[in-house]
Write a structure and sequence with these properties.
By secondary structure, the protein is an alpha/beta fold. Helix content is 41%, strand content 13%. A 6-stranded parallel sheet has the order 3-4-5-6-7-8. It has a 3-stranded parallel sheet with strand order 2-1-9, covered by helices on one side. Helix 2 crosses helix 3. It is globular.
């Protein structure tokens, strides 16, 4: 299988953590229910391909995301080697209770940078969402869990349009104050461009939230995900969210198309001489396997090129 020629560039990290979201964010928008055995095998295949952080599922109410109704059963079927992180998303204290019962050691919460999305996704307000998050984060940290904070609509909102940078930073900084160890800055509808990415990352730094606490989560709606990722790496980011095969979107934002494909990300990082620990041929085979079960070809351009 072809590999990119490795030509290192200055000003980039030596290693990047690929935060795989395919099993959760990638599958949550699928209309046809994927059986729990297939989901478990998907997670195991991703781990075998060298991914060390795999967001597996969410303890959200089945009414809102039926695809993830089997969260507890899935976690019982997953047996990952030591050292592989398997965080889950929790929406509230009830979700945290279920996660603790399941023995989860790392969780994520999902915040909004805009009023409208907070209302549509969280049934809350921009300020009110923190009252919901505070007990979740406090209890999780007290139980020894690591807590990641997602911030959605960081670069644009389909209802509100442009989102002020200081508004995004304000939401993220409050999540850090609550106890989140990492923030994932989401380009939920894929409208970010490189200058905007730099400006937002710099703004976080100016408020005391260092780049070591920041991850990036780009969607490829306008074909900008890889260029935005490279920009973030040049700013010092070392954790990048992606989804195997390019699976996923956002069920509450109709204009959101797929996540940055993990294979496309790894191809770029390999070409830059940046270590990830990911075996690209195994990852491509995994996405082809999953695409066959979903009944459609993978979105990833690298998978199409290497498996075509």
């Amino acid at each position: 299988m072809r590999k990119p020629q490795r030509v290192a560039a200055e000003g980039l990290p030596a290693r990047v953590t690929v935060y795989e979201v395919g099993p959760r964010d990638g599958l949550q928008n699928e209309k046809a229910i994927v059986d729990v055995g297939t989901k478990a095998e998907f997670v195991h295949r991703l781990a075998d391909a060298g991914l060390t952080t795999i967001e597996t599922t969410s303890f959200v109410h089945p009414k809102w995301v039926p695809q993830l109704a089997d969260a507890a059963e899935l976690l019982e079927k997953i047996d990952l080697p030591e050292g592989i992180r398997a965080p889950v998303l929790v929406p509230n204290e009830r979700g945290l209770d279920r996660a603790l019962t399941a023995g989860v050691r790392e969780i994520a919460i999902f915040a909004s940078a805009t009023e409208t999305f907070a209302a549509k996704n969280l049934n809350s307000t921009l300020d009110g969402q923190f009252a919901m998050f505070e007990p979740v984060v406090r209890r999780a940290v007290d139980a020894g869990l690591a807590v990641r904070g997602y911030v959605s609509m960081c670069y644009g909102d389909p209802w509100e349009g442009d989102v002020p940078v200081d508004q995004v930073v304000g939401v993220g900084a409050r999540l850090v104050e609550l106890g989140c160890h990492e923030l994932s800055l989401g380009d939920t509808i894929g409208v970010a461009t490189p200058g905007h990415v730099t400006t937002l990352l710099d703004a976080f730094g100016a408020t005391g939230v260092g780049v070591e606490k920041l991850a990036v989560h780009f969607h490829d709606t306008y074909g900008q995900a890889l260029s935005n990722t490279l920009t973030a790496l040049r700013s010092g980011v070392t954790t990048v969210d992606s989804s195997a095969g390019g699976l996923g979107g956002c069920p509450y934002a109709e204009s959101a198309t797929g996540n940055l494909a993990t294979e496309d990300l790894v191809w770029q990082l390999d070409g830059l001489g940046i270590e990830t620990g990911v075996d690209l041929p195994k990852l491509v085979a995994t996405s082809v396997w999953m695409a066959e079960r979903l009944g459609r070809p993978p979105v990833s351009r690298v998978v199409q090129a290497l498996a075509g």
